[in-house]
Amino acid sequence: MTILESKSLSKISLRSILTIPFIIQTLLVAGLVGYLSFQNGQQAVKEIAHQLHDKINTHIEGHLQQFLYTPHQINHLNANAFYQGLPDVKSVEILEHYFWKQIQVFNSVNSISFGYKEGGLVNAGREGKKGSLYVISTDTFKKGIFNKYATDSLGNRTSLLVSVPNFDSRSRPWYYKAVEKKSAVWSDIYIVFTGHDMAISASRPVYDKYQNLLGVTLNDIFLSRISDFLKNLQIGKTGHAFVIEKSGLLVASSFEEKPFIAGNGKKTKKRLSAHESSQPIIKYAAKFLIQQTDGYKKINSPVQYEFTNDNKLYYLQASPIHDPYGIEWINVIVIPESDFMADINANKRTTI
Questions:
Q1: 35: enclosing H helix or E strand
Q2: 11 falls in which pLDDT band (50, 70, 90)?
Q3: In this structure, are strands 213-222 and 240-245 parallel, antiparallel, or unpaired?
């Protein structure tokens, strides 16, 4: 080795000794700071997601409690009125007008009725997008022909819309369940005979001053009202919510998909389970929940999970919904991680 080569090597070695450790130290510090920043950002995302879930769930739960409370409140008011003889339940005309006026006060219910112990029925309700009003009654309070009439601006009958033979209110679940329990109850959810919606009936037995059964007062609510509420609710940026029974059957969702098959031709009317939904988020969230909670049995208080579908991470919260009259539902909120990651990704790019 020449003297020149030795001097050159000394220069390079000295430069390397001074520079390379500094570069390594700088990269390590920058990398550590970036890693810690990203991890803290991820944890912050989870906390924000949980807070948002709680906020949305409280909003949905409050709406459902009011929606489900109103039918029983109406029944309570009517049972007390009938107990006192005001209005007289033995006057079909008076009772028709009474319900016809009442249905216009309570916009969240679709019909209000009284089923007689002799099998007859008096009812008033609304239907269609325009909310056209109608009344229904059988003759002389007894089972028989069920006649449905359109009404004028004063609530008087006009044209006959439909007649159904052999109607007997006592054979209906809303009637005999209330009589058997001697208290306010919910019916099972059912698909209405027109096939355009699902409904549930709130019913309550009515007694006179001597505790003799007069009949059962009830009203119906359409469950599409819940879906309409969920569709108009902002759930993060692209999140969704759906409501199911403890059995897993869909009640409502924020999607356009109906939670049932209306039935036509060879197809029969059928309610859909959440895992049968055509919406991937509902389907995979339901399947995940079934595995995690032993078929929804363990959801007795709010639970929060994370699951991946199509290489995307989602935050999920499932919360029980119940009331004193038999409702046992679960509200599920699903929000993709990407809704919260815009700022985190921006910070990551800045760090890089």
A1: helix 3-83
A2: low
A3: unpaired
- Residue 318 belongs to a domain: yes
The closest alpha carbon to 200, from 226, 231, 228, 164, belongs to 226
Task: Identify whether residues 151 and 244 lie together within a single domain.
Answer: no
- Indicate the pTM of the whole model: 0.84
Nearest to 78 by CA among 203, 224, 196, 265: 203
Alpha carbon of residue 163 to chain centroid: 34
Residue 131, domain extent: 72-222
Per-residue confidence (pLDDT) for residue 20, from 0 to 100: 76
Contact 207/214 with Cβ under 8 angstroms?
yes
Q: Which residues contact 32 (CB under 8 A, 6 or more apart)?
A: none
Are residues 93 and 140 in contact, defined by beta-carbon separation less than 8 angstroms? no
Q: Over the range 221-230, which residues count as b (16 or more CB within 10 Å of their CB) and which as e?
A: bbbbbbbebb
